[in-house]
Sequence to fold (504 residues):
Amino acid sequence: MIAKRSTRAPGSTSSFTRLVRYIARTDDRTKQAPEAVWTENCGAEDPALAAAIVEAVQALNQRSGADRTYHLIVSFAASDQVGLSDIRAIEKRLTGALGFSGHQRICALHSDTDNLHLHVAVSKIHPETLLAHSPHRDFKTLSRECAAIERDYGLDLTHSADRSRPPSPGGRHADMEAHAGIASFVSWCAERTAQPASEAGNWSELHRRFLAQGLRLKRRGGGLIVQSVGGDFQCKASAVSRSLSHDALTRRFGPFEEPPEDRAPNAPPHYSPAPASPPEARSALWAEYRDERGQAKAARHADCQERRDLLDRQKAVWREEFRAIRHDPSLNRTARRHAYAYLAKRRRQWFSDTYVPNREHGAQVRAENRLPTWSRWLEARAADGDPQAQRLVEDRRRRPSSSRPPSQDLQTWIAARNETRASRPKAGILEHRLFDGQLAGTAVFRGIRHLSGRPAALIEKDSLMLVVPISDRQAKRLRRERAVGAAVNVDRAGRFSAAPELSR
Fold:
């Protein structure tokens, strides 16, 4: 489970009503309707009426100049089976952790993607105190609470499980990959720069190895960027890997050295947007999708260029008229002011008579030449009955195996230990119980057991032996940092930290 705050573009303004229309899918009837929509603390069940009430409450606060709307997105793993009642409880738990328990909220549950996800529109203005609340370091709070929720509800351990493959890049690159199904330039660079970055011994060797991969490392502002040789694509070096950040590389090689003007290989590797799944990238449907998208973009560009040329020609006429008015010696100050006003009136009239209808024609051209993402285009083809598209969509929706230890095997082992305890009362075996968030606190570390190939930590607390499912990485760290009999602190998410020594 992943929860994050959606960020807006710099300089844009928020609107609670516009956000509600987006998450409730009332702005575009062609989109799939949400699975469920509900309100909290709004005094109305209808989303449109609730949004109007929220905006009226927000207008009562005249002191705060901060953004008044908080957009929370909660995404569940494909293997998670979560009911609506649990989702509503999780929403209350997350917003309560952020300090929004008494605030007005409108929630919408979407199921039109591979992962079930929840949108929560939160008003930062409290309906009673009218004070604005902006949570501090909300990403820390959300990460900590998500880890605890995963343990409590038996969800896939997204925040603490050990992964066999490298994590995908975060931020907007990961959003693009999840939304469009296309591998980002950051992921493409990460696959090709890990080995060159680790094996290089100085700046010259690092630049040479990057050039062999069709990439250049350049300075930009106070950091570094990775750029394709042709300059078509670029990204922050630290987004590819933290080992490629400016600070990390200058600690290894000294002050930054500009790349030499070496020529790239005759046929260097070149990034081309393609599906992250190899079967999808090799399919004939991907080539067909690229052709259709290219034709749609060409039609859009032609219309946009016509409107741009029309506007440029008219601006040139206005500039000549403005220059003529400015340099006409027969006009006095008052006449020149009236001439400028008449020119401005003619400009407004031209926009209403010529440019606005032309803009409406452009909207029609864009509607006729849609640019769907690869994921939406593939799902539409599958819905139309294309067998190859249906096969690819089915492969994509096939749920991966959960990364957490099999709970059935854990329960079997715990039940066997408790049976032994009942049959041998003099053996001094403690009652075994599976760890949950209610049992968090300070305990004594009693070792690690491997059950069905996955590790589990044993801790003693309140005359109970608690079994905590952990990842391989956590097991290695516990063996290295915690001795058997040492005091440990376990939080609600099952994460270990040092604790004061307990008396024995």
Observations:
- The chain has 16 helices and 14 strands.
- The radius of gyration is 30 Å.
